[in-house]
Write a structure and sequence with these properties.
- The chain has 111 residues and is an alpha+beta fold.
- It contains 1 helix and 6 strands.
- It has one domain: START domain (Alpha-D-Glucose-1,6-Bisphosphate, Chain A, domain 4), CATH 3.30.530.20.
- Helices cover 20% and strands 41% of the residues.
- The protein is globular and about 45 Å long.
C-alpha cells in the first residue's frame, strides 16, 4: 500500500498449500484515521476451495469491524484489490499493485 497513506507490516502465520493462507498484522499506520494502528493484531485470511471446475477464494479480514474509522474505506479497498488486482493476477499472471513514488515524482511498482 502507499506508504504515505498506509503502511502495514504482516507476518505469514499459516500456509496450507492450495487451501489457506493467513497473515497477522504486526504493525499498521493510516494517515487518515485518528487511531493510526486500527488493523494491528487483526488477521487476513484467504481460503481456497474447488467449486466444480472452478476455484473459489474466500477472503476475510478478521478484526476489521464497523466500529473502526477505516471500516468503509478499507472494505471498499479490499473489494477492489480482491476483485481487481488479485483476480487479474490469477487470470493473467499480472496483478495491479499500488504504485510508489520515485524520487523524481514518477511512479514505480511496489516491490
Amino acid at each position: 500500500m502507499a506508504q504515505d497513506v498506509h503502511y502495514c507490516k504482516m507476518k505469514l502465520t499459516e500456509v496450507i498449500p492450495g487451501k489457506k493462507v493467513v497473515w497477522l498484522v504486526l504493525d499498521n499506520y493510516f494517515n487518515f484515521t485518528e487511531d493510526k494502528s486500527e488493523w494491528k493484531g487483526t488477521e487476513i485470511t484467504f481460503e481456497i476451495s474447488k467449486k466444480g471446475n472452478k476455484t473459489e477464494i474466500r477472503f476475510t479480514h478478521l478484526g476489521l469491524v464497523p466500529e473502526y474509522e477505516c471500516f468503509n474505506i478499507c472494505s471498499d479497498a479490499w473489494g477492489s484489490y480482491i476483485n481487481g488486482s488479485l483476480r487479474s493476477l490469477i487470470i493473467t499472471g499480472k496483478g495491479e499493485p499500488n504504485q510508489k513514488e520515485k524520487g523524481d515524482g514518477e511512479k514505480a511498482p511496489l516491490d
